[in-house]
Design the sequence.
């Protein structure tokens, strides 16, 4: 199945189910301020996004299971939302940690409430507090979705829950390292790959693993697809780093150069600090973490990275990871439609524009 075909078929179902689940949460709440909070969560999660994680869960499940063997299509779509809730949970927390005020072209979740109560003395504190709680609650809603799933093999559901909670734990580890290296700024390439293994790859691995476990995949297929997911996610993150500096603000939904402003350990900054000559390195270091970074500064960073061949080197790593992922994919026992989807996904992550 082609990616565009899968998106056209399943994305509307995923988004309808996300809305349905959140509507159930909202319907159970009588207090006005609480309803306002949950309505804001609903608006945030329905802003858009690629929905690659729930989509991958569904395609993985259908790649090893007869279509109605364990779950109907409606059931597996509902289960797939657990990883989208978890993903959006991490986005809300990420925006607080990174001090990003824009997400998908609109105010970040915590900024929504900061703006709404701008006339109140503690508006910023209120917004940050709501953001922490909003991220926590989306994790909880996703966990509840998975807990409420029925499966004839109870052990399979337990394994799926373990994958979900492990992903969140790994994301926390990745976030800790990400924060540390954005302050210390001495991350090696190995440190960078460790961060993205935790922060990016963990949830993509879990998404595919949950689908495979619930579909009854063999242990060999599960292991091969976890390796595939890890490598594709790394390629995805490298592309994210590239888009963060070279992409279109309109398409990526946040200011270009945000990673530089926050002093983030991206593949570009890590390679730059290891390869730039002293004068260029000193200037680059002076710009890392600079909140008043200008467009001229961003343009200088782009030009110096291009001069040293750093953009090209980052792209080589991306291509290598994607290519290695396909080696593991070909060892997995999946139906042809699913194999086709995951093969195209490995190429899609490199070519996307947002």
Sequence:
């Amino acid at each position: 199945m082609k990616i565009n075909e899968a998106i056209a078929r399943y994305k509307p179902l995923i988004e309808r189910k996300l809305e349905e689940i959140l509507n159930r949460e909202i319907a159970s709440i009588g207090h006005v301020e609480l309803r306002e909070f949950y309505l804001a969560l609903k608006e945030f999660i329905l802003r858009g996004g690629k929905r690659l994680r729930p989509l991958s869960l569904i395609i993985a499940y259908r790649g090893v299971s007869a279509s109605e063997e364990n779950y109907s299509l409606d059931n597996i779509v509902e289960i797939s939302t657990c990883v989208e809730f978890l993903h959006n949970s991490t986005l809300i927390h990420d925006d607080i940690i990174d001090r990003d005020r824009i997400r998908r072209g609109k105010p970040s979740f915590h900024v929504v409430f900061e703006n709404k109560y701008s006339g109140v003395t503690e508006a910023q504190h209120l917004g940050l507090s709501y953001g922490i709680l909003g991220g926590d609650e989306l994790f909880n809603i996703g966990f509840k979705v998975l807990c409420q799933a029925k499966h004839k093999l109870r052990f399979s559901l337990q394994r799926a829950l373990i994958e979900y909670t492990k992903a969140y734990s790994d994301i926390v580890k990745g976030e800790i390292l990400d924060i540390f290296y954005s302050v210390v700024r001495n991350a090696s390439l190995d440190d960078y790959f460790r961060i993205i293994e935790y922060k990016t790859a963990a949830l993509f691995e879990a998404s595919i693993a949950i689908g495979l476990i619930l579909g009854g995949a063999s242990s060999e297929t599960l292991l091969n697809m976890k390796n595939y997911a890890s490598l594709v996610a790394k390629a995805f993150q490298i592309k994210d780093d590239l888009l963060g500096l070279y992409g279109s603000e309109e398409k990526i939904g946040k200011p270009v150069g945000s990673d530089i402003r926050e002093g983030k350990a991206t593949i570009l900054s890590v390679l730059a600090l290891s390869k730039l000559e002293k004068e260029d390195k000193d200037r680059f270091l002076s710009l890392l973490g600079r909140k008043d970074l200008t467009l001229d500064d961003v343009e200088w960073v782009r030009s110096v990275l291009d001069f040293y061949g750093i953009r090209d080197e980052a792209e080589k790593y991306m291509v290598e990871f994607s290519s290695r992922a396909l080696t593991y994919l070909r060892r997995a026992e999946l139906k042809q439609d699913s194999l086709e989807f995951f093969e195209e996904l490995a190429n899609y992550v490199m070519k996307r524009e947002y």
